[in-house]
Amino acid sequence: MGEKMWAVFSLLMNSEECISAEDIQHQLEEKGYDIGLKAVYAVIKQINVFTSLMFGKEIIKAVRRFGYMIETGYFDEAQIQLLIDMVNYRQDLTNNDKREIVNKLLKLSPAKQKDYLIVPELEDDDEGVYSLSKNLKIITSAIRNKKDIRFQYVDYTIRDGHPVETYSTKGNAGINHEYYNVSPYNTVIVDGHYYLRAYYNKHKDSLTTFRIDRIRKLDKSRTYYFDFDDEEKMSESLKQSLAKSMNSFFDGDEIILHIKFDGVLIREVVSRLGKDITINKTIAPIENDHQWYETRVEGIIFNTGLMNWIRQFGPMIIVVGPEKLKEAITDGLEENLSYYKK
What we know:
Layout: H1 3-13, H2 21-30, H3 37-55, E1 61-63, E2 67-69, H4 77-88, H5 95-106, H6 111-114, H7 132-145, E3 148-159, E4 162-167, E5 180-190, E6 193-200, E7 203-211, E8 215-221, H8 236-243, E9 253-262, H9 266-273, E10 279-282, E11 292-302, H10 304-311, E12 317-321, H11 323-340
Antiparallel strand pairs: 1-2, 3-4, 3-5, 3-8, 5-6, 6-7, 9-11, 9-12, 10-11
Helix pairs in contact: 1-3, 4-5
């Protein structure tokens, strides 16, 4: 997009009213542009050709007897509001990150559309607060260029009765082992948090997982990068760790989950297990007025996350199988109960 095209585009994007071609010419001349009336019409046509190819629609609208305006941008009001809300409600993002991303989104929104958007005011972050977007940028660059990274990992200590952020001393570098040197493999998002999966030489037989919002002082490292394409250097257990799907990267065996549940939990079950599962009516294990259902789902990862999900619903979900999951949940409940009986 040329300079004159950008000037016309910006003028229309920032105006809530129609602007005639003559007014566009006059305002651009006041800004030092040498542009004739025919050139204004030509530029508007060029912009619409560009947006038609880029976005699939002409965004400059001609209004008879009034001039030109941009009523909606590439996104309609609902779409741009959805994107803004998704950014503002991401718990891993700092306020500074949110503000930067939202401001970039608003550049795609014309003035008339902005009037209807809800954009909350955010307080400034404290100086030195980490940036999730910067962390992701460094990590993805390192993955693409096959470079090691170095960082500190958050831990907490208690001071005057309050948790205070410090750093872990379980790393593999630094005087106090306060730094981690790792070879990044990929990033995943689970339960609203971004995670880094990386080769860490203290755990050579599997990938190690780090939550990215807990990473501090991140930078590229000059240490030797573990080449994930060199299968001769990998143990079988590491190969299996690499092969895990993005949504099951936590340790755990695959099981066939068989549960019975109260009908009021249908949304929760579908949200966790997916819409492709088969659900059948079953007899309620206790007397109540609710319909109960059961389902069997293959390929579920047996880990702490699954057990915690089941336990949060108490008697409204009952595990039928496998037996090892029933035993693990029972043992956990009995252990918890023993603490309350002391």
